[in-house]
Structure formats: C-alpha cells, structure tokens
Amino acid sequence: MINGFHETMVDSISPFQSTQLVNNKYENVLEHLDSGIMLFDHEGVVTFVNVQMAKLLEVSRAALTGCSLVNMLKHPELNRFKRKKILRIYRETIFHRKRYHELIDESGRHWLITVTYGDQLDGDILFSLKDVTDYKQIEQTAYQNDKLAMLGRISASIAHEIRNPLTAIRGFIQLLRPHLLQLGKDEYAKIILSEIDRANDIIYEFLNSSKPSAPQKTVLPVANLLKEVALLTESEALMKDCEIILVDNPDPLQVSIDVKQIKQVILNIIKNAMDAIQNVDNVRPGTIQIAVAKEGRYADILIADNGQGMDRHTLSRLFDPFFTTKESGTGLGLSVSYRIIKNHGGFIHVNSSQGEGTEFRISLPLVQK
C-alpha cells in the first residue's frame, strides 16, 4: 500500500516538474526577446517586464515589477521624455482603445507599440515594443523613389511646353530693348530678361531632376575635388561672413565619379549651409567644415556647418521634391542630389538639430587598388 502511494506521488510530481520546466523555458525566451514586453494585471499592476523593456526605460526590472502606472510615472529613474511618452501611449492605447501606436525616441529611432487585451489574457494587458527604424527607412526610400518617378513624369510633360513660349518672349524683348532704351526704360527690359532666365533655370532643374544624365565617370582623388570646391566657394562665403575650413587627409582616397554631377551636389549643400549660417542672429563666426574619411569600402565626404540647424519635420522631408523652407527655392536641389548620389552607388545622410548646425555625409564607393 505504501509503495502504491509512493508511486502515485511520483506520477503526480513528474508532470508538475515537466510543466514547470516548460514554463521556465518560455519565460526565459520572453525575457531575452529583442522586443520590449510589459504585462499589467487586471488591477493595473506590472507583473512581468523583460530585459529589453527595462533597458529601454532605463529602470531595473525589480523596480518596475509590482508598480502601478502612477508609481511608474513617479519613479525617480524615469526621465521627463519617457514620462510624456508613457502618458501618450496610455491615452492612445487604453483610453482610445487603439491596439497600435508609433513613437520616435530621443535618438530618432522609430518604435511600434502593440497592445493585447481582452478575454485571451483574462483581463491582463500586454504591451510589446519593437524597433522598426530599418523598416521605416526602407519605406521612406520606396516613398522617395515613387515621388521622384512622379516628378519625372510631370517634368517631362510640361517643361518643354513652357520653355518654347519663354524663348519667343525673350526674343521679342530683345527686339524691343532699343525702343525702351530711347524711352529711358531699359531697366524694364533687364528685369524681364532676368525673370525669364530665372524661369528657364527652374525648368532646367525640373528636367535635370526628372532624369539626371548617366554619370560620365572619371577616377580622381577626393581631396582634389574638395580643394577645387573650396576655392570656388571661398569668395561667396566671405561675402556671407562665413569661413570654409578644408580638413586635409593624407590618405589618397580615390573614387570613380562624374565630376560635374558630384561637384553640383557638394556646391548645393555648401550653398544651403551658407544660407543656414546667414539666418543665425548671433555673434559667433560662421564656419563650414569640409572633410573626407574612409569608412569601409566608401569615402565619406563630410560637410558640417554651425548654422541654425533643422527640426525633425524639416529633416524628414529634406529630400522630397518641391519641399523647401526658402521663399525663392524650388525644393529640387536636394532631391536631384539624392538621385545623383544614388546613381553613383552611394548614400547621403543628414544629422541636424535646431541651434546646433547640420552635417551632411556623402558616401561614395572607393576605387579598389
């Protein structure tokens, strides 16, 4: 009888131990997922936090477990930015019953928050947080390509139709100019011709942005290109009270590029930097630093200014066709630059903060020796 009782106890303990092992295994998997996970019970108390979520909040798991939302918001280790984001997530997901919410953190990374609640969790609420920055970048690239394709169709259909009458108008103004000179109104002709030329320049930008010509590549040291660009922009920079600083690099980094096109990109970025510096109302000297560095298989051309910088909205739309913050801008310069660098097999990135200046990084494939 005793032996039978012992066998019954062993049989009942064995499945319990097996279940416990499985539960521990699953909990260990959840703890070390690359997504952040936090579970609230039906009373709003945190019952589980995985390693990634604690790392993102920068608060220990032990300090979070057992906290209510109010306790969490009062936690001294939680910074103000995260408090605001948690309140917004609560409002969007719990109050407005939205199961998905996106946010951008202090470093500009994109996160997708998914909320699961209902009968399947017996009243508990599960929050999961996943980094979707790479997906957003792929989506933005596809969106950018669609916009450039649309711009190409629009440009091809209207540019020639506008240029033809402008050419005729310019010719007639030239014929009328002697008569205007006799009347003492030659400045009228100058203004009209200047505006026609400006309109033609805009049309040229349309045509160039719709389909930049195929690169006619030449192998040359990046340092030589940057020296030439610095000389070209030095006088204009002095007129706008800023200094061009060219940082020497003894490493002879060589790239295969269309010199005219890449020069157009760099000049456009430097001109934008000059405008950004000119709009800063302070006494600090304006500087534009140009440098080149090797980064893996690429030569990185860095153009950094100490101008007014950009907010996140401007930064997110910087390469969109027709987007500009200038009164007289067309919004095509940087979208054309984006296309040119892409056609060279390179990349262009921007880092900027308001009041702290802007840095453009142009990555071009190195010529393998």
Automatic annotation (TrEMBL):
Record-linked InterPro entries: HATPase_C_sf, HATPase_dom, His_kinase_dom, HisK_dim/P_dom, HisK_dim/P_sf, PAS, PAS-like_dom_sf, Sig_transdc_His_kin-like_C
Catalytic activities: ATP + protein L-histidine = ADP + protein N-phospho-L-histidine
One MF term in the entry's GO annotations: ATP binding
Keywords: ATP-binding, Kinase, Nucleotide-binding, Phosphoprotein, Transferase, Two-component regulatory system
EC number(s) stated in the UniProt entry for this protein: 2.7.13.3
Residues of the PAS domain: 22-77
PROSITE patterns reported in the protein's UniProt record: HIS_KIN, PAS
Domain Histidine kinase: 157-368
Name under which the protein is recorded: histidine kinase
